[in-house]
Structure formats: C-alpha cells, structure tokens
Amino acid sequence: MRFRRFLILGSLLLVSCAGIKHNDNAQNLLNPKNHEVRDRAFLDVLEMSGEHKEEDVASATEAVSDDEEVLEEITDEPKRAVGKRFNSFAYSPFRRFTPSPDIEKEILAEDLDRAAPKELSKKDRQHVVPNEINEAVQKWIDIFTDKEQDLFARYLKRSGRYEKDVKEILKEEGVPDELFYLMMIESGFTTKARSRAGATGPWQFMRGTARNYKLRMTRYLDERRDPWKSTRAAARYLRGLYKAFGSWYLAMASYNAGEMRTLGAILRADSRDFWELAAQNRLPKETMNYIPKFLAAMIIAKHPEKYGFDPSEIEPPLNSVLVKVPGGRRLRDIAKAINVSHDDLELLNPGLLRGITPPNEEYEIRVPSGSSDLLVASVNSLPKVREPKEKEIFSSGNTHKVRRGESLWQIAKRYGVSVKELVQVNRLPYPYKIYPNQRLQIPG
Question: Which of 84, 130, 289, 320 has the most crowded CB, counting CB atoms within 10 A?
C-alpha cells in the first residue's frame, strides 16, 4: 500500500528551506516564533513525499547526512545520530519537530484526510476511543490490580479532583472525554510531574510543543502545570493528530513517541493498525505499552469496584471559578482575604511558580466556588509584592563561542563571573539553554 503525504524531515530541511543559509537552519526551524517557515516546509514535504515509496524515501534522506555541520547544529548531536536509511532517520532527534497548530487548517484544506484508513470503525467516526481487552491490555489490568495496586489507587483517588472539569474541556474541544485517562498514564494527575527529558505537568508537555499551543512559561508562570489550560492544549494537539492519522490509537501513539516515529512505523509496517505496528515491533517499547496501559486504566477507572478499588475514596471535584487579579499579588494574601487555606489555593493554581500573580498584568486565578464575591470585594486592598531591583550587568566587550558539551557554569567559572551575570548580560530566556557555536557576551 502507498501512503500519501508522509513527513520526511531530512527532505524538509533540504527541499523546503533551500532558501535559508544553512548556518541559520537550526535557529529558523527550531525557533517557535518562526512557525511560517516550518509549516510551509511541512506542507511541501507532505506533498512531495506522497509520490515516493519506502525505498525512494530512504534514498532521499541520504543527502541529509552529507551536511554534517547543518545536521549537528540542528540536532545538537553528532552525525552518526542519523543513518542513511529511513529506519535510522525516523528514530533520530529530528522527531522533536512539531508543526504549529495553524498548520492543521491548511493540511485539512488539502487532501491529507484521504490518508486516513477507509475502514474506520463506527466508533472512530463518532470520535470515541475504541474500548477493547486483548492480551496486552489484560496484562496491564493485572499489573494495576496487583503489583501496582497501591500506586493505581492513589491515581484513582486523585482523579476525582479533575475528572468533571477535564472531561468537559475535552468535549468542548471535540475530542473523546475518555482521553481523560491518558492524563492518568502521563502523570497520575500530578501537576508538578516532570520527566528527565523536561516534560512537565499533568499532560507532560515539552516546552516547544507547549509554546505552539499557547501555554505560557515565564519566571512566574508555567501553564503546563495548570490542569485546565494544559488540558485544552493537549486536546487541540490530540485533535490534530487524530485528523492526521485517522485513529485515536495512532494519535495517542504520536503523542507519546512523536509524529516522526509513528509515521516511520506506519511506512515500514505498511499498516495503520496500531496493534499490527506493535506486533511488528515498529514502535518504541514505551509506546507499545502506552495504549494498553491507557485502555487498562480507563477500564478499571470506569468500574473500580469490579477490580477491587473503593470508589468512595475518590476525591471530590475541585469546584472553582476564575477571577481576575492585579499583578504582583500573593496567593497567601488572597487566601487570607477569602478565608480559604493557602494550600487549597495553591492546589487550584499550580501554574504560579512563585505563589504570586505575574507583575504588571492582570491574571486570572482559580478560587473555590462561592469565594469570588469575597475576592472581588477585597482585591483592591491586597498588597502588591515589591520586587527587588536587580543590579544592571554590562558586557566587557569580550565574547565566548560555545563549544559542544559546555555548560553555563563552566563558561562562568572560566571567566570568573556568576551564571546569573552571564544569563543577564545575554538575556537568555528560561531555561537558559545554550548551543554550540553560539556567541555569548562576557560580563564586565
């Protein structure tokens, strides 16, 4: 079977970005502000790659590894990370590429939808996640009800806080409310969850994807940790993946493994059936377990008593409302003004990293239902936090070219300055990443 419109990122870089100087490729493609360049390239390659079979795609990607300098700049990894076969390419660091949400409309305006399988089930057409128990799913039901029973019980207990609101948001965004249970697999409904790779919050968003879906991350905010805002972002991301792949299983697999890996697996397996991809070991082990774990969690959570869990232990919903508050107000002062505990207010606003609203702007916070009138009445009397003025740091006029593997701490130590001064003089955005060949100003 020939699949139309597959994303081949190597060709994307070479074909669609031919007009960009190769030294600027990394910055132009990976800078989330430059969606237009990436999206146009994304669409061009979808068009181009539909005319190629797997062997043609493999030969097309050979050229990618010929430009070692560009490859290393883009991936921040050595040339060997990407082989000359599509198999190597699809599992490379390029899989971190994510199109912006706006691309969805243009893809759909063309004929990507024709790539969806013709044999979509009635449930898929009704936007419902298929519910099935096979050997792989039963394995995880057994694990969640035996070896990991205590852990699953904690997740199930915590689920009550968010189930009502999250399912409502999912429905508003036009995706199945069963995707709520994906949140259980991603984080166990823990707002402060953070993976070793830096994925954060209940939906485990990486920073680049979070920005694409309008989640804010500043010194004061990380909206990836906000269950309500991150749910809306996750719903839109999953909705786009479903429209591209025509299957909720494949959409979830892409959410876990990335679009590149899933597309590569489909191409090599010549199948769009998730279970067939798993049978052929075309996906990472984590992803092959991801769908069975999700289905097992959903099945148990819908019938907790049947599987030995006490539904009475599930926490009640966090009934809350949004109220606008001026910038620079402490949650502790707000809690006191509306007669609720500071811990309860923090639970409703996990995205406020410093326990204060962002300075110099109004910001909507969540308060318990029934408390909004009290807050509105007292909001003008809340004290504003005074930020200490930071000492202005100037450049010495000297620069340093970042070498591969160097850290800010090493560079700061070499020049006898602090990391904070280095960050300030170069105006590095959080989380203060630096890249090979980047020129840094050295503080004076």
Answer: 320
